[in-house]
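S., here's the first fold you wanted:
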Amino acid sequence: MANSRPIANGKPRRPLNYKQAGVDVDANTRWVGAIESAMRSTYGPRVFKNRHGGFAGLFRLDYDESLFRRNYRKPTLVGCTDGVGTKVLLAVEMNDLSTIGIDLVAMNVNDLITCGAEPLFFLDYLAVNKLDPGHLLQVIEGIANGCRQAGCALLGGETAEMPDVYSAGELDLAGFAVGVVELNRVINGPKHVSRGDIVIGLPSSGIHSNGYSLVRKLIQAGGCKLDRHYDDLGETLGAAVLRPTRIYVKAVQAVIRGYKRKQVITGMAHITGGGLLENISRVIPTKCDVVLTRSAWHVPPIFEFLRKLGTTQKEMYKVFNMGLGFVLVVKPFYIEGVMRILKRAREKPLIVGRIERGTQTVRFEE
C-alpha cells in the first residue's frame, strides 16, 4: 500500500498547519474579542448591536422614533475609500501606532462631507506581517476614536495576516466610509459656486496624511532624526509628522443643520493630495478663479522646516495643505452666520479668499 504522506528526501514529511505557514488563527480569535469594546464605543441607535462576530454589520438608515430627527425623504448614499499612505512607515519606525487610525477615518469622512453628507458608518482593512493583538490594538482604538469624532459607527473590518506579502513589523491600512445626504441638499461646487462667493478656511493640525513620500525623502536627505527636538518646530520631528489629521465633520454638519432650508454653502474641499492648488480648483466652475490671501492664515512651522530641507515653495503648495485642512465656499450674505456657527462648533474659521472670474485656477495675493 502506498504511503499517503508527501515524501521529502525519501522520508515521510509531517503535514503543515496554518500556523506553520505564518498565520495564527488563534491570535485572530483573540484579536476579534479584543477590538469589540472599541467598536461598540462608536455605536449609535441605528446599529444592530447583536451582530458583533457576524460576517457583516447592519445599519438602519432610518427607523420609527418620534425624537429621531434625521430620517430622510430622498436619501442618497455616498461612499468613499482611502488610506494613510506612507505615513504608516513613520508610525512603524517610531513604534507609535496610536494616531494613524484617526488619520484613516479622517481621510475618508473629510472627503465624504464635501458633498454635504452625514457619515453613517466606517469599515477598515488592516494588513500585517504578524498579528500582535496587544500592539495593533492601538490602531483600532485610533480608528474608534476617529469614528467617535466623526459621529459614525465602526461597523466592521478585516485584518489580514500575510507574512509572504509584508516583512516583519510592516502593516498597511485602508478604510471605507458610507454616508447619506438628502437628494435636494447635495452640494455640487462646480454647479453652485459663483463669482463673489467667500472662501472660509479651517486650520489643519500640520501635514495631515498626504505627501509623506516627499516628507520621508526630505527627512532622509537632511539627515534629520525623528526623536530629536528641533527649535524651529518647538517639539520633536516625530511629534510634528505623526500629529493626526483633523476631522471636520461636526463643524460642517453644524452649518448644514443650521440652515435647513437654505443652501448657504456652495462648495467644499478637503485639502489632501494635490495641496491647495488642485483641491480647491476641483470645486469651482471653469470660468471662475479662487483668489487666496496668503497672510490670512498661519502656516504651521513643519512646512517651512520641510521646505528648508530641499524643496521649493511652489512644490509645497502643490503637495501640502499649508495650514488649511478644509475649505468652504459660502454665499457672502451668510458669512457672519456661518462663521458664528463654526466658532460655536469649536473651530477657528478664517476668511481666506474669494471667487472671481477666471479659468478654474487658484491665485494668491498678499
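And the second, which I think is the more interesting of the pair:
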Amino acid sequence: MQIHSSAMVSSKAKLDNSVSVGPYSIITENVIIGAETKIGAHCVIEGNTSIGKNCEIFTGAVLGSRPQDLKFKGEKVFLEIGDNNIIREYCTLNPGTQEGGKTVVGNNNLLMAYSHIAHDCKVGNDCVLANNSTLAGHVTIEDKAVIGGIVAIHQFVRIGMLSIIGGCSKVVQDIPPFSTCDGHPARVYGLNLVGLRRKGISHNSIKQIDQAFKIFFNSGLSVKHALERAEMELEKTEEVAYLINFAKNSERGMTRSCR
C-alpha cells in the first residue's frame, strides 16, 4: 500500500494492499477501497463509501459527503462505486438520503471534471458525464449514455441507454433510449446512430427503432395512442420492446421532439 505521508487514512478504513493514496487526501472510517485503485491528491472520501477495483480518483474529488438535502438527519446511507471508473478533478458524489438509501455508480464510467452526482442516483455502466454535468437527486442514467458538458438534469429523471445529450442542455423529462437530444429544455433530434452501430445493433432493428421514433415523436399522437400504434405496427425486436417499455414506465413523461 502506498500512502503519502501527508495523507490521513483512518485505521478503520479497509483499503486493499495495492491501493495508492496521494498527498493530503483524507479517508475516514467505514470506507472500503478495492485493488489497484489510485486516489489522487487532496481527495476526501468519507461516509459509508465503497469503491471497486482499478478506479482512478483525481485531485480534489469529494466522495460520500452528506447529501445536499434538507431532509437528511444523519441516517445511515451509502455510496457504492464499481470497478474501472475514472473520476476526474473535483467531482462530487453524494450518498443516499433516507435510512439505507444508496447512490450507485456502475463500472467503466468516465466522470469528467466538476461532475456532480446527487443523492439516490443510479448510474449504469460505460457512461460518460462530461465536465460540469449535474445530476439532481434520484436521477437514473442507463448504460452507455453520454451526458454533455454543463448539462443539468432534474430530479427523478431517467436517461435511457445509448442516448446522448448535447452540452448545456436543460433536462426536465425522461430522455428516450437510443436518442440524440439537445436544447433548453432538451428535445429529441433523432437516433444516436453512431452509438447503435458501435453496439452492434442490427440494421433491421435500427430501422424498427427509427419507425418507433417517427410514431412517438413526429406523428402528433398522444403517448397513449403512440404506444398503441407502436405495439400494433412494429416488429418487436429487443430494442423496440425496450423503448416501448421505457415509454410505458416513464414517470415524468418522455422528452418530446424538436419539431
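Why I say that: Residues 2-141 form a domain with the UDP N-Acetylglucosamine Acyltransferase; domain 1 fold (CATH 2.160.10.10). The chain has two domains: 2-141, 197-248.

Talk tomorrow,
H.
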